[in-house]
Amino acid sequence: MKVHKTKTISTLLICALVFYVYQNYCYVKFGGPFGTTSLLIDHHITVKDLDREQSFQNNDINDKSIDQRRSNSTVNHKTNPAQGGSTKYHFMIIVIPSMPKSKNYRDYLRHRWLNESCWGSHEFEGIDKQYLDFKLMFVVGKDKYRAYTAEFIEEMTQYDDIVLIDKIENKKILKDKVLWGMRKSIELYDYKYFIKIDHDTLVDLPHLAKGIQTLPDKNVYTGACKSVIKHGSYQKSFVYCVGNAYILTRDVIEKIAMLTEEETNIPLIPEDGYTGWLVSQVKDKFNLTDLYPLKRGWIVDRFNYKVGAGIYHFDRWFYHWLKGIFKMERAFTCRVKANLTLCPDAHYRYENINSTSCVCDHGEL
Question: Which residues touch 49 (CB under 8 Å, ≥6 apart)?
């Protein structure tokens, strides 16, 4: 009998221990016992993030609460004088796919090349202010296991430049983010140009403001547009512009927004290739014989500089593959310090890989 009782007690103790371990695992993995709440603590979240989230355990955060907080902030919007109405007008809309956790990138972009005051005033001499009137839209999805954090909600309230898409974050939804950004831009704003860029793309704002004036205001799809799908059922069926940066006019975006679910719901994953597919469908559906990708490689620089060595050729509107904020900052500071008229072909570099001194690649200034 004693042996039986001892086994029973041992079994109960083991069960209790297993329950205790499992419960604590659930608290770490799912934010509550047996995954009852949705706050996930994963390898992307730092200790600082964990401390912050202790004060934000409400799992009922949804789009309505975000909209309510947004409505409490005052945002001034320009209207299009030509229309005489209350439509919010901007010369161009800049759409950047982002993720909830990528606040560091969003803040960097807001306070660097997107901030006109960070450029020298001489850079904008002779440029009409209308060409610097842009609206930024970060398109953000949902984390799989946790609600939006208090910090993210506050960021949305403060900047009013984030739009949410009701999809779980993963690499495959990039194309959905861009299509959603297109549709929301039509719904929210009046504008002439739609620009999609990656968050690791440096935009030369003065060059963009000067150069975009030379584009037509209808039937435009342009950038570095020499790419084709190399495999599968869409192989070489259309040409598309690479996804680091491309530009479309509003009329093309409006027609893309008119495509049916059957026309847009296709298993083509690359976001830039998908946009090329949408444009090809618009061209066929609306018989737009003059709508072609404009192959203007000087708009986007992909290969004509060596980021790792700190060598840049500053004669483009957009510079891609600046992986990480450090490389973006190096390129930005070099561009701002550079006097392009004094350096042949606008080639610049840092003196060495750890240097902050930007010099002409053909001799120090």
Answer: 149
Q: How far apart are CA 137 and CA 125, in angstroms?
A: 27
Buried b (16+ CB within 10 A) or exposed e, 108-136: bbeebbbeeeebeeebbeeeeeebeebbb
Asked if residues 343 and 360 have their Cβ atoms less than 8 Å apart, the reply is yes
Residue entry with tokens 């919007």: 77
Structure tokens given for 277: 């597919």
Q: Distances from the Cα of 135 to the Cαs of 50, 69, 131, in angstroms?
A: 33, 20, 12
8-54 tens-digit pLDDT: 556 555 555 544 443 343 333 333 333 322 222 222 223 233 233 33
Helices (H), the chain: 2-30, 47-53, 63-71, 103-111, 150-159, 174-188, 205-211, 250-257, 261-264, 271-285, 325-337
Q: pTM of the predicted model, to two decimals?
A: 0.75
**Per-residue pLDDT tens digits for 54-103:** 333 333 334 444 444 444 433 334 544 444 444 689 999 999 999 999 99
Q: Each residue of 163-203: pLDDT tens digit?
A: 999 999 998 999 999 999 999 999 999 999 999 999 988 99
User: Which strand ranges, in their side-by-side order, compose the sheet holding 358-360?
Assistant: 311-313, 347-350, 358-360
How far apart, in whole angstroms, are the C-alpha atoms of residue 111 and residue 105? Answer: 10
Question: Which two three-digit tokens encode residue 271?
Answer: 């976001």
